[in-house]
Design a protein that fits this description.
- Helix 1 runs antiparallel to helix 4 (about 55-75) and helix 2 (about 20-30) runs antiparallel to helix 4 (about 55-75).
- About 75% of the residues lie in helices and about 0% in strands.
- It has about 220 residues and is mostly helical.
- It has one domain (about 1-205).
- The protein is globular and about 65 Å long.
- The termini are far apart.
Length: about 220
């Protein structure tokens, strides 16, 4: 059983390592996405570097398809074993965020997680979007603030969601609802870890703005 879970995690990791953003930008402009802009291997950086919204959308879709593939492959192999799917999804996120073939560089996992939960539990995607918008418009109009709010909000909310709702909203047999909670927590940690630096940069900016205002007074 343990070997199967390790295999599913490794398989998911390899799926996640498909460098959608790197391939798209290289084919479009010849640039290396890890050396441009923020260096993030994701849709937003591709869009900002290339200036092509369509290219950014294509990268987002490609990354989402990796998450979907992780779920569908695991489901095809172990349809009634949710733990196998969970390990494959987490592995896929780790592969996307920390790509061995890009020397550990990667994206932030939002598109990949969106694709995975779209075919695993769509309610997660809907609630994440609501929490993202809440964080973005209520706390501060910053995409990273919104992403962190959505990620933390989903993990906290589903931690207290009744087991019957977890079972009914999951599109795969879920005999132990705690496994869904653990999956959401693991995914949230992986995604949050890749948002630490942007949040640190935001806090530095806020401190500089406060210092500037104090000096002007």
């Amino acid at each position: 059983m343990t070997l199967i879970l390790v295999f599913m995690a490794a398989l998911g990791y390899l799926i996640g390592c498909i460098p959608t953003a790197w391939i798209a930008l290289r084919m479009s402009t010849g640039q290396n996405v890890t050396d441009e802009g923020t260096g993030n291997v994701g849709a937003m950086n591709v869009y900002e570097v290339s200036g092509k919204r369509t290219l950014g959308i294509l990268v987002f879709v490609g990354d989402a398809l990796k998450g979907m593939a992780a779920v569908l492959v695991a489901r095809a192999m172990h349809d009634d074993w949710f733990a196998a799917t969970a390990f494959c999804v987490v592995g896929c996120l780790l592969g996307h965020n920390y790509n061995l073939f890009l020397r550990g560089r990667g994206g932030r996992g939002l598109a990949t997680a969106t694709g995975a939960f779209a075919v695993l539990n769509p309610a997660v995607v809907v609630i994440w979007c609501v929490m993202y918008l809440t964080g973005y418009y209520v706390i501060r109009r910053n995409v990273h603030v919104g992403a962190v709010a959505g990620t933390i909000g989903v993990a906290v909310l589903f931690a207290s969601t009744p087991e019957s709702i977890l079972r009914d909203s999951t599109l795969q047999p879920l005999y132990q609802p705690g496994q869904m909670r653990m999956l959401l927590l693991a995914c949230s940690i992986v995604i949050f870890a890749r948002h630490i630096r942007p949040m640190q940069a935001l806090f530095r900016q806020l401190r500089e703005e406060e210092a500037s205002e104090s000096n002007s007074e």
